[in-house]
TrEMBL record:
The lineage of its organism: Eukaryota, Viridiplantae, Streptophyta, Embryophyta, Tracheophyta. Its main location: cytoplasm. This is Pyrroline-5-carboxylate reductase. NADP(+) binds at I16, G17, A18, G19, K20, M21. NADPH binds at N65. The keyword Amino-acid biosynthesis applies. Residues 168-272 form the Pyrroline-5-carboxylate reductase dimerisation domain. It comes from Cucurbita maxima (Pumpkin). Pathway: Amino-acid biosynthesis; L-proline biosynthesis; L-proline from L-glutamate 5-semialdehyde: step 1/1. Belongs to the pyrroline-5-carboxylate reductase family.
Length: 275
């Protein structure tokens, strides 16, 4: 089956699944100005927690998933890994030559292509900072995805952060690091703020300082290109306050704990892909 490039100026984007990740991506894409909200659609279905108001930022909400597929050139499956097979199989008669994207953790391209009935599929692992334009995403192209498809998806996800391309065999590790990673950093920021409160700071000030400090540190790495170890050494004076704090972190095996968290999440992603 031959696939023709999709028009970058007129394509329509549909989300199958209207959860938090779909909201993060849709909101980020709209805010970036890459696509007008009138060219983005989804269909609501019952999800845990309060419903997401996609219409509040202009995205069209259609009655059924079938309507979303029919009106879209690019379809992003953002449903839970446990149900993606049933969802794709149900929509299979409508998928035709559309460019299909899956952001479901642990679901392999081979299975996605078999269920869809064609191989124009791209697998992407984004993360929730897409909602504020700072996602870390990785993509892997299916057998039938053409070069222009990869460029389209790179531009789409690049509008809400940074995107890399990697072999699919690395996706479990990617899931453990960047897919789950924001939660680790949220926990770290909360812990830093608690430390500030324990040292006598007001809660609001402590949380603001912790959040900005993490943002600033990450920005220094991305903008200077320096290794984090070098940046750490640059602010660690002999016998000073920073080395005293680092000593405590090392005693608590902080680096080992973070490494274990990534490996545990990667292992869970692998388990999901084998079910």
């Amino acid at each position: 089956m031959e696939f023709l490039p999709i028009s970058l100026d007129a394509y329509r984007l549909g989300f199958i699944g209207a959860g938090k990740m779909a909201e993060s991506l849709a909101r980020g894409i709209v805010q970036s100005g890459l696509l007008p909200p009138s060219r983005i659609s989804t269909a609501l279905y019952p999800t845990p927690g309060p419903p997401i108001d996609f219409e509040s930022f202009g995205v069209r909400v259609l009655p059924k998933n079938e309507n979303v597929v029919e009106e879209s050139d690019v379809v992003i499956f953002s449903v839970k890994p446990q149900i993606v097979k049933n969802v794709v199989l149900k929509l299979r008669p409508l998928l035709g030559k559309k460019l299909l994207v899956s952001i479901a953790a642990g679901i392999k391209l081979k299975d996605l292509q078999d269920w869809a009935g064609h191989s124009r599929f791209i697998r992407v692992m984004p993360n929730t900072p897409a909602a504020v334009g700072e996602a870390a995403s990785v993509m892997s192209l299916g057998e039938g995805a053409i070069k222009e498809d990869g460029q389209l998806i790179a531009k789409l996800f690049g509008s809400v952060g940074k995107i890399w391309e990697a072999e699919e065999k690395l996706f479990d590790a990617i899931t453990g690091l960047s897919g789950s990673g924001p939660a680790y950093i949220f926990l770290a920021i909360e812990a830093l703020a608690d430390g500030g409160v324990a040292a006598g700071l007001p809660r609001e000030l402590a949380l603001g300082l912790a959040s900005q400090t993490v943002l600033g540190a990450a920005t220094m790495i991305t903008k200077t290109g320096k290794h984090p170890g070098q940046l750490k050494d640059d602010v660690t004076s002999p016998g000073g306050t920073t080395i005293a704090g680092i000593h405590e972190l090392e005693k608590g095996r902080l680096r080992g704990i973070f490494m274990n968290a990534v490996v545990a999440a990667a292992k869970r992603s692998q388990e999901l892909s084998e079910k």
